[in-house]
Amino acid sequence: MTGTALLGFAGLCLLLAIAPGPDTFLVLRYGLAGPRFGVLAAAGSAIGSLFWAAAVALGLADLLRSSPTAFLVVKVVGGLYLLYLGVVGFLRRDEVVDPGGGGPVRSRWGPSFRSGVLSCLLNPKVGLFFLAVVPQFLPAEAIAVGTIMVLGLVDAVVAFGWLAALVAGAARAVGWLRRPRVSRGLAGLSSVALCALGVGTIAAVI
């Protein structure tokens, strides 16, 4: 595989990463509790995309393309999970800031990382992206598990870089974000966005 092909694939991955989606809102939602939690959610999302790349490389994701039922199940479960995250985030929006000091609350890294992984794994569009796009960048003699995983790694790195940059940008405005009213408002907005994405995902397949 040529360097030009890799750069072209990375550019396409960046364009897709920039488009707001579930991972974007999820990362910003956790980033309100502190930059490290947003970065961990971004890392979880990147790991999830690697799992999809592996599934495509091993031929497992063909099931989603060939079986409408399997695609429907994954789609609905993913939509319900986004809706769950949105509802829980909205109900807990007052916990984003410390009422005593106005700073971020302490939180464990596990939930943010795990949510990032699950959000990506329950988004079949990631698998379909690899199925549809990756072959366009593979020469006939290079169609192998290792080569596909290289492209999967490129996608994961690009997506993580973009999401981490979003978190870093938000961290620069940390003083403004730590205001209780602002934090609660942004937490509520991101939660509503996740709910809307979840409902839209479910409605699209019903």
From TrEMBL:
Transmembrane region(s): 36-60, 72-91, 143-174, 186-205
One Pfam family per UniProt: LysE
Organism this protein belongs to? Saccharothrix australiensis
Q: Where does this protein chiefly localize?
A: membrane
Gene Ontology MF, one:
amino acid transmembrane transporter activity
- GO CC terms for this protein? plasma membrane
| Annotated compartments | Cell membrane
Task: Give the membrane topology, semicolon-separated if more than one.
Answer: Multi-pass membrane protein
Q: What is this protein called?
A: Threonine/homoserine/homoserine lactone efflux protein
Ordered alphabetically, the record's keywords are: Cell membrane, Membrane, Transmembrane, Transmembrane helix
